[in-house]
Design brief:
Rossmann fold, Single alpha-helices involved in coiled-coils or other helix-helix interfaces, five-stranded parallel β-sheet, 9 strands
Length: 281
Amino acid sequence: KIVMVTPPQKFVGIDPTTLVAAHEAGIKEIYKVGGAQAIAALAFGTESIPKVNKIVGPGNIFVALAKRAVYGYVSIDSIAGPSEILIIADQYANPRYVAADLLSQAEHDELASAILVTDNFSFGQKVQQEIAQQIKFLSRQEIIEKSLSHFGAIIIVQNLKEAISLSNQLAPEHLEICTQSPFELLPFIQNAGAIFLGEYSPEPLGDYMAGPNHVLPTNGTAKFFSPLSVDDFIKKSSIIAFNKKSLQTLHEDIEYFAQAEALTAHANAVKVRFQNDSKIY
């Protein structure tokens, strides 16, 4: 069973496109609430909202921190938000495209992060100029400016190997590789939520159409979290079934490990099956 929470919009209630998406996904239970309060309601339950076992999905900094706070009371997919993009680019990349992709993430939130890492100083300058031009025509200019001011950067490195090392340390939510041979760099990427290869794989492609889920780990958590997937909705159990002959081949080893941990009841639970005298030792 899956329930959904989504904040109502001023004067219009739930966004119609969100309702359509929920319908397509087979969601039958929707609550008009968002933010940290929605996370708390799902984690602990209220008179009107049931307690759940797992919370998945992205949000702003308040949602991300709320998910972190309730982890342990319920399971979560990952810490997803605020949004991030890191672009590795060389001199062969198109500065206009790279600037547009950086801006596409900066418009999400004043806390969003947009970083370019390049081994070419001149290219970095061209991207900076493109950002200054393109931002003039964007509807969320004020948010973008604050985002870039606090969490944007153009970093010049000696070579692409250094760029990869930096990217792996930051473990970005979205990583674009805009280089002459992006597939050659792919094997060296260790930590990233989603990886976009080549100049015709912009980040919005992953948001809307490509297929892999765009709910991705942020804030460096791609080092140990994975993108949201069907695996997040599957719970596994171990199944063990030995017969007497099978257990007999291993019982002395099991007893040895149990004795090494001074857990005599563990050892006895195995030994008793192969002795007429069930004396505990």
